[in-house]
Amino acid sequence: MTSPFPARLVVLRHAKSAWPPDVPDHERPLAKRGRRDAPAAGRWLFVEGCVPDFVLCSTSRRTRETWGLVAPELGGRPEVVFEPRVYGASAAELLDVLREVPEQRRTVLLIGHQPGVQDVVLSLAETEESGGAGEGAGEGEGAVEGEGGVGGEALARVRAKFPTAGVAVLALSGAWADLAPGTAGLTHFAVPRGEAPGK
């Protein structure tokens, strides 16, 4: 039986990573700011009702560490797949992976990298009409930089920049197996930030 509610894709770019010398890209860890921002992203997902029932995470260290800090904030225990194909994937390659999601999964969290995460969101939402107003960010704990409303303004923000720990939420118009450019609408775009030391 088909659910009356559209499936949702939540696209999360890994939190801020460090650049230690002589460490391969795949093994770079999160930076201190990344370890603050990742839990903030998890709290944002929980508050917005975007708790996933299925997680597709790149195998890189920084994405795995991001998920490890997001997960405790969600209040659920979704199935998690650490998918090698997500690391370094293009938008087209990410769509190939997402088409394999079981149809019963209603909220899927994809944790990946630039430029793939930005490109796949723009590809999926490219036919969406402009509309809706965004809200500016606050300061301190739980601040959200550049949170977009529905439609063109949020899409313009995604197009301009998809920062680390940025979160885009899309509502699908059909089945996972039919995912293709223009088959989803962007409903949220936010960049949650944790509280900096001394604040």
Question: What can you see in these coordinates?
Answer:
The protein is α/β, with parallel strands linked by helices. The protein is 27% helix and 19% strand. The protein has five helices and eight strands, in the order βαβαβαβαβαβββ. It has helices at residues 32-47, 61-70, 91-98, 116-125, 152-160; strands at residues 8-13, 54-57, 79-82, 107-112, 143-144, 167-172, 184-190, 192-193. It has a six-stranded mixed β-sheet, sandwiched between helices. α1 (32-47) packs across α2 (61-70) and α3 packs across α4 (116-125). The protein is globular. The model is unreliable at 128-150 (pLDDT under 50).
Please mark out the parts with pLDDT under 50 across 5 or more consecutive residues, or reply none: 128-150
Backbone structural class:
alpha/beta
Q: N-to-C terminal Cα separation, in Å?
A: 50 Å
Return Rg in Å.
16 Å
Task: Please state roughly what percent of the residues sit in beta strands, choosing from under 5%, 5-15%, 15-25%, 25-35%, 35-45% or over 45%.
Answer: 15-25%
Supply the number of helical segments: 5
Summarize model confidence as the mean pLDDT: 87
Main-sheet strand order equals 3-2-4-1-6-7
DSSP, total strands: 8
Largest sheet: 6 strands, mixed
Please trace the helix and strand order, writing H or E for each element. EHEHEHEHEHEEE
